[in-house]
Amino acid sequence: MENEKRDHWSEVLKRRLQNNERSEEEKKTKETELFTKYYTEWRGGGDKDTSYNNIPRFYYRLPAEDEILLQKLREESRAVFLQRKSRELLDNEELQNLWFLLDKHQVPPITGEEAMISYEAYLQKVFHCPSLCQAASQ
C-alpha cells in the first residue's frame, strides 16, 4: 500500500511538473502580450483614437539663408499665389459696371439713408452678369 502511495505521489509530482512547464510557457506568452499591449499604448500606437493622424501640417519652417533653392521655390510659389488671387479680383472698370448696375436698380430706403436693392432685382442682375457677381462675391 505504501508503494502505491509513493507511485501515486510520484505521478502527481510528475503531472505537476508538466503543468508547471506549460504554465511557464503560458506565463511568458501572457507577459509578452501584456508588454506589447502596454508598450504600444504608451508609445501612442494604440487603436483608441487615430483622428489626430489626419491633421494636416500647418507650419513649415522658413528656409535658411544657405538654402537658396528653397528660398527661390518659396518666392516663386508666393508670386504664383498672388497672381492667381489678383486675377480673381475685379478691375476698376468691372467694379464700376457692377456698381452702376446695382445703383440703377435700387429701391427707396425704408429706414435710414442707405441705398438698397430688392432681392428680386439682385437675382435678376446676378443672372445677367454671373462673371462679375461671382468674382465680387468671392
From TrEMBL:
Annotated PANTHER family: SERINE/THREONINE-PROTEIN PHOSPHATASE 2A REGULATORY SUBUNIT B'' SUBUNIT GAMMA, SERINE_THREONINE-PROTEIN PHOSPHATASE 2A REGULATORY SUBUNIT B'' SUBUNIT GAMMA
Domain of life: Eukaryota
Compartments, as annotated in UniProt: Cytoplasm
Residues in coiled coil: none
Protein name: Serine/threonine-protein phosphatase 2A regulatory subunit B'' subunit gamma
Gene Ontology BP term (one): positive regulation of B cell differentiation
One term under GO cellular component: centrosome
Main location: cytoplasm
Keyword entries, A-Z: Cytoplasm
